[in-house]
Amino acid sequence: MSIFNELAPQHRLMPEAYRELSTEEMERRVRAIKEKHGDELLIPGHHYQRDEVIQFADVTGDSLELARLAAQNTRARHIVFCGVHFMAETCDILTQEEQTVVLPDMRAGCSMADMANMAQTEIAWRLLTEQVGDTILPLTYVNSTAEIKAFVGRHGGATVTSSNARQVIAWALKQKKRILFLPDQHLGRNTAYQLGIPLEQMAVWDPYAKRLETDRDPEDLRILLWKGHCSVHEKFTVAQIEEFRRSDPEVRVIVHPECTYDVVMAADDAGSTKYIIDRINEAPTGSKWAVGTEMNLVRRLAARHPEQQIVSLNPDLCPCLTMNRIDLPHLLWSLESIDRGETTGIIRVSQDIAEDAKAALARMFEHV
Fold first, then answer.
1. Is 3.40.50.10800 the CATH classification of the domain at 233-312?
2. CA distances from 299 to 162, 260, 291 (A)
């Protein structure tokens, strides 16, 4: 179920008066609250956040890196997570009971995470195990709900990030003959192919049709891919890569592994958000890049490296719509709610789900 359908009555919407404030006034009030609360307040900011928000982040990173940094910070009573819902859930799972995790806008969900729910996953597991027996280990991308992480944890599986998917999948295939990879088919396919598994041994599970999209014998398959994707990274195409190379052969194309298989194969390089940032940070003056990932990050990289030419692989791409729900007015409202003792947007994962999800996260940490 989408987070938009799960908004409880206690999760109020931001008063419109906040949108009438000037940028200067909002920035002044955010700084004042940060100074007042000091170490008891932590603001993690995901790389895909708006500049107006990321300027106030105490730590920046990808989703799991931020959750781990938050978990290491035992001083903060309030953690205002500038990202999307599944990230804040993971942060709550990994932090202490006395710490409160807050999402500034509860509408900041993730379409990919919403593509796999528990009812669908339970049905898929039952039907697939009926076909191939006890030969499947489930893995889930961290871009998934706490319930899906908990399902994976209960069945002996692990979470993965785009940075360590290769190591975790390699570990998983030593445990069982095949894996079920949720919810992003592209990261699963691209990573498994990197590990030498041919496409012929992979198939997509359609949760709506409740079947594998293949005519092959399920016994011949090793990678079962959930039919999910990132709505941003699917917007990059091979045609865009070819056009850049026609216009300027010196441009290097680097993309995220959430892109489709053909795009990853056509690109010069592919890797996680951190990998992309590191490659560009280390690149020499005069380097030219067409980057296939979220637009806010591409623009930020271009601004930080004027000595290089950095553009989006898809110049018409919009920033991630749900990630962009966290804006300066929502951040200020969230902070002032905490300051008044009327905290809103609290993310709380139930203990039973959190324990199983934590097991999935722990296995990932143990095997990388």
1. yes
2. 21, 22, 10
Give the span between the Cα atoms of 357 and 348, in whole angstroms: 13
**Parallel, antiparallel, or unpaired for β 211-212 and 202-206?**
antiparallel
Nearest to 91 by CA among 101, 78, 76, 82: 101
CB burial string 335-366: b at 16+ within 10 A, e below: bbbbbeeeebbbbebeeebbebbbbbbebbee
Which amino acid would we find at residue 311?
A: V
State pTM to two decimals: 0.91
pLDDT in tens, the chain (368 residues): 444 444 444 467 899 999 999 999 999 999 999 999 999 999 999 988 999 999 999 999 887 788 778 889 999 999 999 999 999 999 999 999 999 999 999 998 888 999 999 999 999 999 999 999 999 999 999 999 999 999 999 999 999 999 899 999 999 999 999 999 999 999 999 999 999 999 999 999 999 999 999 999 999 999 999 999 998 899 999 999 999 999 999 999 999 999 999 999 999 999 999 999 999 999 999 999 999 999 989 999 999 999 999 999 998 877 777 777 899 999 999 999 999 999 999 999 999 999 999 999 999 988 66
Q: What amino acid occupies position 130? A: E
Residue 95 and residue 359 in contact, taking contact as beta carbons nearer than 8 Å:
no
CATH 3.40.50.10800 residue spans of the chain:
3-108+322-349, 113-230, 233-312
Distance, C-alpha 228 to centroid of its chain:
13
Q: Rounded to an integer, what distance in angstroms lies between the CA atom of residue 231 and that of residue 216?
A: 28
Cα–Cα nearest to 128, from 196, 200, 225: 225
- Yes or no: domain 3-108+322-349 corresponds to CATH 3.30.70.100: no
> Which candidate, 189, 140, 182, places its Cα nearest to that of 361?
140
Is domain 113-230 given the CATH code 3.20.20.140 in the classification? no
